[in-house]
Specification:
transferase; nine-stranded mixed beta sheet; Glyco_trans_2-like; Glycosyltransferase; Spore Coat Polysaccharide Biosynthesis Protein SpsA, Chain A; Nucleotide-diphossugar_trans
Length: 281
């Protein structure tokens, strides 16, 4: 068995699908380099089916990997939940994982090897393939830039990392940046902007596909007044903390309003042909 000194950080809440949660957990175990620890934050009480998946996972794989379960009595939101989980991560390298995605079998091995030869990189992401039903039947990619200057330019308007692919230096994230902040819907994006502000050379992306990401209701989640409000408040936080310029704020808030108010079919086309168009350096 080939192990990696890595802690996996995952948060789960009651609205998740138990089938997807099970697949996500098992993809961690099927790695070419198995992480030594997985930290799972129960963000509030879960459904019985989610609890059963977690209990079965512990019973089946508890001898292979240390499984740390953190219980939050009330749902706190992703940023707060991840900060609680970070405190229980034992290893210097922490890999984020979503509770409904599928990690490619060599994801952790590729990231560990790259970080070992690039000590300046403190946060490393990669590419994703998006799917609806079967992880190995993708219908499109979300490519993000890999060169430092391209990442910086991209970050002004859009998240420069696919958050579910990220592996980072725990001490850098906690000690230098004070962990995740409570920015609903934009917790990871706000953190990466702070990384870039602290050290532009600390953030990188591999050109490899690291995760198959489930996006069955992406357009529905990113439409309507609630998303407009979340986007506005997040960009306001970015501007207040000098993470973006006023021009960036106006452009992204306006674009967010226009896209969110379009009919769902048109919004899906925008994501498919514009926002999910392969990124070229």
């Amino acid at each position: 068995m080939n192990y990696a000194n890595v802690s996996i950080l995952m948060s789960v809440y009651y609205k998740e699908d138990a089938r997807y949660f099970k697949e996500s957990l098992e993809s961690v175990i099927q790695q070419t380099m198995i992480p030594r620890q997985i930290v799972i934050v129960r963000d509030g009480n879960l459904t019985k089916s989610l609890d059963n998946v977690l209990d079965n996972f512990i019973e089946t794989y508890g001898y292979l990997i240390e499984i740390s379960v953190i219980q939050l009595q009330q749902q706190k939101g992703l940023g707060i939940a991840l900060n609680f989980g970070l405190q229980s991560c034992k290893y210097d390298l922490v890999a984020r994982m979503d509770s409904d995605d599928h990690a490619m079998e060599n994801r952790f091995e590729k990231q560990i090897k790259y970080l070992g030869t690039h000590p300046d990189i403190k946060v490393l992401g990669g590419q994703i393939q998006e799917f609806v039903n079967q992880w190995n039947q993708p219908f499109r990619l979300r490519n993000v830039p890999t060169s430092p200057i391209s990442i910086l330019k991209f970050s002004r308007y859009r998240n420069p990392l696919n958050h579910m692919t990220v592996m980072f230096d725990k001490r850098f994230i906690l000690d230098v940046l004070d962990g995740y902040h409570d920015v609903p819907g934009f917790e990871d994006y706000e953190l990466w902007l702070r990384v870039l502000k602290a050290d532009q050379s600390a953030l990188g992306n591999l050109a490899d596909i690291l995760v198959a990401a489930r996006v069955s209701n992406l357009q529905e989640r990113r439409g309507g007044l609630n998303y407009i409000r979340q986007n506005y408040l997040a960009r306001q936080t970015f501007l207040r903390n000098d993470l973006i310029t006023f021009k960036d704020f106006v452009v992204t808030v306006t674009a967010g309003i226009l896209v969110s108010l379009t009919p769902s079919k048109l919004r899906a086309a925008i994501y498919k042909y514009i926002l999910r168009k392969d990124y070229m350096e």
